[in-house]
TrEMBL record:
Organism of provenance: Streptomyces cyaneogriseus subsp. noncyanogenus
Roadblock/LAMTOR2 domain location: 9-100
Taxonomy, superkingdom: Bacteria
Segments traversing the membrane: 83-104
Record's protein name: Dynein regulation protein LC7
Family matches, as InterPro entries: Mycobact_SerProt_Inhib_Rv3364c (IPR053141), Roadblock/LAMTOR2_dom (IPR004942)
SUPFAM superfamilies from the UniProt entry: Roadblock/LC7 domain (SSF103196)
Length: 135
């Protein structure tokens, strides 16, 4: 059930066990590479991570149009037929993504994700990459 780079299992399992309806949790780098996952298919987790890179970029572009915004994306929630998608900034160059079924309550999920990021955000980081190389 767990695929990881680093020791994220206990962090992600705690979120998974604490919120009913979670289908998959993915930790990803800003450039869309999967760092870790809990539950779900590994190939699907890679696709979600890649899609999140574009989504966080789009959200940042929209945020720049809001007066007094620093232009950084904090949280995106998308309601989909049959469930929800959540993407939250989680440390330097890292994001936390969650897919859930319709049973999941969005307020509870976003609060639990915020709590997790506040507690362990420094561990959810990804070094910047240039030309495919870690800097």
């Amino acid at each position: 059930m767990i695929q990881q780079r680093g020791n994220f299992d206990w962090m992600l399992k705690e979120l998974y066990d604490g919120v009913p309806g979670i289908e998959m949790i993915v930790v990803l780098s800003a450039d869309g590479l999967r760092i870790a996952r809990y539950a779900g298919d590994p190939d699907a987790a890679d696709r979600v991570a890649a899609a999140c890179a574009g989504l966080q970029s789009l959200a940042g572009a929209v945020a720049q149009e809001i007066p007094d915004s620093d232009g950084r994306m904090k949280l995106v929630i998308i309601e989909i037929d049959g469930g929800y998608f959540y993407l939250m900034a989680a440390g330097a160059n890292a994001y936390l993504a969650v897919l859930s079924d319709i049973v999941c309550e969005p307020g509870l999920m976003s609060n639990r994700m915020r709590d997790l990021v506040a507690r362990i955000g420094p561990h959810l980081t990804s070094p910047a990459r240039h030309s495919g190389q870690t800097v």
